[in-house]
Amino acid sequence: MPPVIHVRKNSSASLYTSFDVVPSPKGAAIHIEQFARGIAEEFGPLQLATISRDGQLNSSAFDTQIDQVEIPAPGNDVITRVMNFRRLLKAWMNERSYEVIQFRSPFEGYWIACDKQRYCRTLIYEVNGLPSVELKYRYPKVAEDEVLLDKLIAQEQKCFAAADLVVTTCLVSKRYLISRDVPTSKIVVIPNGVQLDVFKFSSLPPLECDERFRLIYFGTLSSWQGADFALRTVAALLQDVPVQLTIVGPGTAIQLRSLQELATKLGITNHVCFLAPVSQSELLLEIHKSHAIVAPLTANDRNLEQGCCPLKVLEGMATGRPVIASDLEVVREIASNETVILAKCGSVQSWKEAISYLRENYILATQLTVAARSVIESRYSWDRARQQLNDSYRTILNNGATTLAKS
Prior knowledge:
By secondary structure, the protein is of the alpha/beta class. The chain is built from 16 helices and 14 strands.
């Protein structure tokens, strides 16, 4: 029987912190919720520290075993917000220490990594994306600021060095982390998952010969996701076939306006519908109204070098709707020609041909969707992802002669 860890009264043995708003429709928030619940169910009470939704310091019960504190992150730019979040999180953590701290970026984890022994025995860095790679896509001027990029890289390296375990989502990311001098022995790959009771399978809707082929793009509007490419593909398709595209997901006002302006420029505004972010259950309804899902990931360092585990592809594969996705290594890690339709990344002609073929051979999509759902059920449930995380916890804690006791 593992030894019981004694912690301060009214404290938790573990902390999970992230510079994100939770809950929210974003994939990051869904990921955090799932991992937080898994840790708490297996190892007992957990404290979850995230960005405040209303600018106030809030504390509440997120779940039976999870207490959430929402830390304000005021400021007019991301650097100011990060610095304020760090300062207020550090103040909140004064006199607190944990057996395990898990964090998702240097924004919240760097100062903990700098004084690890003060705050925890075991430190886990969950790498879903790195600011040195991704920040420039939201703030283009970052790419021109070599000093800032050097600082981000240095802080990431400090986090890598201090972490006892580095969790990432795909083999491409693992390869990139190794290139950043993270020891292979530290890295564990845990792909994203799907909430199977939410993303339910449904049979294909009928398609009349002259009916608009209804496509849906869902997910964030970040440039690496390719929503703009989806618009260009629709413009090309309309030369030959009737088609309708629904875009649903979170994005900045600038990102949304840029996509709307592009739709106007392409002359396809009557064939595109933009929807605000919705809950997962509401998203499923929109998916099931559609004939097919598009996931046009773009060719850039975020997708090709850093890597990712595209949640939209996984969730789409579960729903009973065929997925057309960019033929990238990160997609092929989770899908194949037997489960999705792969189109050449960045080629409007290839995408046009793939979607046209699917429309003309729509009945064959049933084979894809059944096979795709089977793969998701067997390999990519959140239950499986949580179990993999908990197994990694047990391994690293036992190796360090420290074990969290389940309450």
